[in-house]
Amino acid sequence: MAERFPRRVFISYSRRDREWLDRLVAHLAPLVHDKRIEPWVDSGKIDYGDRYSDEIVRAIDTSRAAVLLVSPNFQSSSFIVENELPRLLTHAEAGELKLYWLLVSDCLLADRLAGVYQCANDTQGALDSLSSAEVNAVLVRLSRDLQHEANAGEEREVELSGASAPMIPEKFTNSLAMPFAPVPGTQVMFSKWLTRVQDYALFAAECAVARGDWRKASLKQGRDHPVVRVTWQEAAAFCSWLSQREGVRYRLPCDAEWTLALSCDGEPEVSFPWGMEWPPPPGSGNYAGDEAKGMGVLRIGGYRDGHPFTAPVGSYAPNRFGIFDLGGNVWEWCADACGPSSSRRMVRGASWRNSNPQELLGSARVMRNPMHGYDDTGFRCILEMAG
What is the pTM of this model? Predict the structure, then answer.
């Protein structure tokens, strides 16, 4: 994970709104001069292409705050909407970046952002409808907010540098009754269960970032079933919420940690979670077996697991670390992006609707849009242990 600089502020804007960027930068000038903040702005000197994308990704991943200049020009920029904005929202919803936005000119994107993030000029109206004095007042207030966030970020860095992670016992169950197990070769504990509907419901009741899509799954879900239709951002936000609730650090597993937790009997590149044989022996996990007949999906002929859709967590035997459902039930969001310049995120583990042997291999990886939720995708938390 890239190191974040407490003073760095990423400014996202359309080049057609350059005049508004210049006005904002003029108000930030005293803070820049005093080294209180370090704005990062695409000046137009970087050529479009791979290098351009890499520079943007690196800037976003190392910023502590971001400012969006939202307008019809902003929402019509394919690069912003497909690359910058998803990555910024991902970091913001995971609690890694403070997001501010200015409504330069009325547009539909503002409706989406207003439901989650406070607009700096929400009571005054769009900047292009205000007097010069009113615009200045908005920009002064935003500048003060950015200075405050930079100061808070530096204080957090000092606190973290002098503090060690709390010690976690080898066997641990948290306040949501989620049991955790250590995984050899890592400094983390994995939740033995996928995050359940009942766990996510507590988060959704307290946090506006959780949309209602998880309640709209097209399949029957009980309280002890894995929650689905949760975006990557919402999964990361759940981990941040749980961290604040309990005073320890939860997060999504990275690809390498997930592979170690899987613990295939053979090499994961050529084996399944249950071993080398095909078809899977009875009780190997929740995949598309004979119960899926008539559902319009391919099936593993002769295989039955007792559930046409998701199964309650813990319905099948755990692996040797005591972790359930690393193969089957639902795909699991991982922390990893598809590549350095991609916003897509990785899922592992296959699901109730998969039957292709290539999808069931321990090495199977699928890339998905982090802003979408899926009926066959959920997530699992991991807990960082003291070093």
Answer: 0.61
